[in-house]
């Protein structure tokens, strides 16, 4: 049996709409117009937009512009959507009409049809609740879409920062556990002075928490919304007090300090706040890439690489080499970070492409931002759970490499000077003999005393402090 359709009519004429659909004619047109990515709208964005419709209805009732019976039906319909129902009815592709008019009407139509059926009406009749006249009262795509993007980003931020904190906490736990595990430091990927796993991993934790703080710093600006600016920031067709009332209602619904922007028009022209958030996400992705690469280097081997850490095996590493295990979780994290950098580049280009009173690129901008936040959240959580938890430090390997490092010659700077220490380093590199043997042979320090200096330098970092160099 074929799909059944109802016929609806708009300013362009009649159009078929699936009989079972809660959306209407403008959504149906958009589905046919934009078969682009096969991806529907982001879940947090759907919820954010439904909350805007609910808050608008409440604000319009406060002004006496919208009858209480209609407000109750609209808010009940919006509440169903916020609770996770009817999300399959949001069917417009992420790449759609400029500014997001198609999604705005998708929401208007779904809420109107739900409200009308609850009031005894029928789908597609739009009586007594009309998608434009009632659900969209006092609004425009111009102000609801950028506001919904901000609200969706605010909803995602705690999940992303929690993932970062969980990863930082694991690095910090390893750092505490391995505070005295001496290893060779490396700069330029060459032997350097001794350090510890604790210092190395503690630095990862500190950096990640700094990234989380930068992300949190983007939150206040996201709370400045342009809702009530209506078309082009003019406030056209908005009720007295609407701007303040709708912001207050959204603050109540979201638990965020939502407030009207001091310039409503600017919040439609400019995507500055979203670019700032994307920039903080980009910085996070860059740090995660660097740290992920370090994990892969430190785990390289098991015989021919660094081999200083061992990552938990989560799957066989090769279809041809038996027993091979790869650092797959950090490989995955790297791949996600590279994609996120691409999303940030897209956000930058989409933000600058706004013209005059409106940025029509908002649907793609929001999609890029949402993907970056969700992908990083999931990737960080997966890498933390599957590879950081259970990470083992090969202490004997760390000690072996630390005590054969050419970089140990640096410990002699304060006793024999830089030039003489450089000669020791060159001899060690040329002959392959450990620095400790050469030092003992030359009568500079007994081997045991040199080993003590290595441990002290790595853990305390105070060799030569207070002495003339």
Describe this structure in words.
This is Aspartate ammonia-lyase. It comes from Candidatus Muproteobacteria bacterium RBG_16_65_34. Residues 408-455 form the Fumarase C C-terminal domain. Residues 13-342 form the Fumarate lyase N-terminal domain. Keywords: Lyase. This protein has 469 residues and is mostly helical. It has three domains: 5-137, Orthogonal Bundle (Fumarase C, Chain B, domain 1), CATH 1.10.275; 146-230 and 258-393, Fumarase/aspartase (Central domain) (Fumarase C, Chain A, domain 2), CATH 1.20.200.10; 405-459, Ribonucleotide Reductase Protein R1, domain 1. It has 18 helices and eight strands. The chain has helices at residues 25-33, 43-62, 68-82, 101-118, 131-135, 141-177, 197-217, 219-222, 242-254, 266-269, 272-298, 328-352, 362-388, 395-404, 413-416, 418-431, 435-441, 447-459; strands spanning 5-10, 13-18, 182-187, 190-196, 224-225, 259-260, 309-310, 392-393. The strands form four sheets. A two-stranded antiparallel sheet has the order 1-2. 48% of the residues are buried. Residues 463-469 have low confidence and may be disordered.
What is the compact description of this entry?
This protein has 469 residues and is mainly alpha-helical. The chain is 58% helix and 7% strand.
């Amino acid at each position: 049996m074929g799909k059944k359709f109802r016929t609806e009519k708009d300013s362009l004429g009649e159009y078929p709409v699936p009989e079972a659909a809660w959306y209407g004619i403008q959504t149906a047109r958009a589905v046919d117009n934009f078969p682009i990515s096969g991806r529907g709208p982001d879940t947090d964005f759907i919820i954010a937009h439904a909350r805007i419709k609910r808050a608008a209805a409440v604000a319009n009732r406060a002004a006496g512009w919208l009858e209480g019976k209609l407000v109750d039906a609209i808010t009940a319909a919006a509440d169903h959507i916020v609770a996770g129902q009817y999300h399959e009815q949001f069917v417009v592709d992420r790449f759609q009409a400029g500014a997001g008019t198609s999604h705005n009407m998708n929401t208007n139509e779904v809420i109107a049809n739900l409200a009308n059926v609850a009031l005894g009406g029928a789908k597609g009749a739009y009586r007594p609740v009309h998608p434009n006249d009632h659900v969209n009262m006092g609004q425009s795509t111009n102000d609801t879409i950028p506001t919904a993007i901000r609200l969706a980003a605010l909803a995602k931020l705690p999940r992303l920062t929690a993932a970062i904190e969980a990863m930082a906490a694991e690095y910090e736990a390893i750092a505490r556990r391995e505070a005295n595990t001496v290893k060779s430091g490396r700069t330029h990927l060459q032997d350097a002075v001794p350090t510890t796993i604790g210092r190395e991993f503690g630095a990862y934790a500190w950096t990640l928490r700094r990234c989380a703080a930068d992300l949190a710093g983007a939150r206040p600006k996201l709370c400045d919304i342009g809702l009530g600016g209506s078309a082009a920031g003019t406030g056209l067709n908005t009720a007295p007090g609407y701007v303040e009332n709708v912001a207050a209602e959204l603050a109540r619904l979201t638990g965020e300090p939502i407030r009207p922007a001091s310039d409503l028009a600017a919040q439609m022209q400019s995507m500055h706040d979203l670019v700032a958030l994307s920039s903080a996400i980009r910085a996070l992705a860059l740090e995660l890439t660097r740290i992920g690469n370090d994990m892969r280097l430190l785990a390289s081997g098991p015989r021919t690489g660094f081999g200083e850490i061992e990552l938990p095996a989560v799957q066989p590493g090769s279809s041809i080499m038996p027993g091979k295990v790869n650092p797959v979780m950090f490989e995955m994290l790297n791949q996600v970070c590279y994609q996120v950098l691409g999303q940030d580049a897209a956000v930058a280009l989409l933000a600058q492409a706004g013209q005059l009173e409106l940025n029509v690129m908002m649907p793609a901008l929001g999609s890029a931002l949402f993907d970056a936040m969700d992908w990083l959240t999931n990737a960080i959580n997966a890498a933390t759970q599957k590879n950081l938890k259970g990470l083992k430090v090969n202490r004997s390997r760390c000690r072996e490499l630390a005590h054969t490092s050419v970089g140990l010659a640096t410990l002699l700077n304060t006793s024999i000077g830089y030039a003489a220490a450089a000669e020791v380093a060159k001899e060690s590199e040329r002959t392959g003999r450990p620095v400790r043997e050469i030092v003992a042979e030359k009568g500079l320090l007994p081997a045991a005393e040199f080993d003590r200096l290595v441990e002290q330098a790595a853990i305390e970092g105070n060799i030569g402090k207070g002495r003339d160099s």
